């Protein structure tokens, strides 16, 4: 029934609901505690619609209503977003959504990164494409540079999240995923998650690093599955290759590799990160 209620909206909406709906269904079990970590929250739209959806979509054990006792299950929402223009939105998300005190909300006005420092940030006219300069993307006309604080995400997760909770990771960091996900993986910080929504942005990867970026994309799910201890309910990893950021993006070396795998030609020398001749 709930799935039916959601259907109209789902079809018009993005694919992150493939993991958000099962996450909320699990968190709705009496006494559960779910955590939604929204890394790259932008204007907070995704987190806000989940907060507002709890009653609308009839998650009775999570819905805050003035007419009913407090919900028996709880959620913690955590957002990360460095862009100052979204700060006032994100600070007030809890109040804007009418959440009761059963649910917690925390906002970190920082970019998720592999260490805690200050870094240059490229602000684009389309805020969803703004990103850390450290990921080495080419500058575009109209880009504005600012300094933003960064936070060591692996250390944050390892200190803050509990393995006994239901943990959901929404990860939309505009090409920083290719640097940050390997860092999180090797530091064990992806293991506590049950549900993943990862947005990939191959278009912004330097050509010389695209082959390894595609390899990471293809192996990601299985790296988590094989490298982490199992979760009680299994994991659900949903990866989103948004067409405009992935389709028709040239990957030097991929055809040569495929030819060799299929028995033709010579073993290609794979372009390496930092190899400008590739
Ligand atoms: C980042 O910059 C702010 C303001 O300039 C400064 O107060 C802070 O100490 C810096 N943080 C780090 C980790 O360097
Ligand atoms: C993890 O558990 C501790 C102790 O119960 C609690 O204080 C903390 O808020 C929990 N973390 C999250 C993200 O809910
Ligand atoms: C792409 O990679 C090459 C080699 O590492 C480097 O010289 C070049 O500056 C990179 N391009 C951008 C836009 O960062």
TrEMBL record:
Q: Which domain of life is it from?
A: Eukaryota
Which SUPFAM superfamilies would you find in this protein's record?
Answer: S-adenosyl-L-methionine-dependent methyltransferases (SSF53335)
Checking Gene3D superfamilies in the record gives:
Vaccinia Virus protein VP39
Residue ranges of every copy of the Methyltransferase FkbM domain listed in the record: 38-201
Extent of the signal sequence: 1-16
Entry keyword set: Signal
Name this protein carries in UniProt: Methyltransferase FkbM domain-containing protein
Organismal lineage: Eukaryota, Haptista, Haptophyta, Prymnesiophyceae, Prymnesiales
């Amino acid at each position: 029934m709930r799935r039916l209620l959601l259907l109209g909206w789902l079809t018009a909406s993005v694919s992150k609901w493939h993991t958000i709906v099962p996450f909320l269904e699990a968190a709705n079990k009496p006494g559960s505690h779910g955590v939604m970590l929204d890394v790259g929250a932008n204007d907070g739209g995704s987190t806000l619609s989940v907060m507002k959806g709890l009653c609308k979509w009839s998650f009775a054990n999570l819905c805050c209503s003035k007419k009913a006792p407090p919900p028996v299950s709880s959620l913690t929402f955590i957002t990360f977003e460095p862009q100052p223009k979204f700060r006032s939105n994100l600070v007030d998300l809890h109040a804007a959504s009418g959440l009761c005190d059963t649910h917690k909300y925390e906002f970190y006005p920082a970019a998720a990164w592999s260490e805690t420092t200050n870094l240059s940030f490229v602000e684009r006219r389309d805020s969803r494409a703004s990103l850390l300069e450290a990921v080495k993307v080419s500058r575009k006309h109209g880009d504005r540079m600012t300094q933003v604080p960064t936070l060591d995400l692996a250390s944050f997760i390892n200190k803050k999240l509990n393995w006994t909770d239901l943990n959901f990771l929404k990860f939309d960091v505009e090409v920083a995923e290719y640097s940050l996900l390997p860092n999180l993986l090797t530091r064990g910080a992806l293991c506590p998650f049950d549900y993943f929504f990862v947005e990939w942005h191959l278009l912004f990867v330097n050509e010389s690093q695209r082959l390894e970026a595609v390899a990471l994309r293809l192996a990601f799910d299985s790296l988590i599955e094989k490298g982490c201890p199992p979760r009680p309910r299994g994991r659900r990893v949903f990866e989103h290759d948004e067409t405009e950021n992935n389709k028709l993006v040239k990957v030097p070396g991929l055809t040569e590799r495929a030819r060799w795998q299929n028995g033709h030609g010579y073993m290609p020398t794979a372009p390496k990160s930092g190899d400008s001749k590739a």
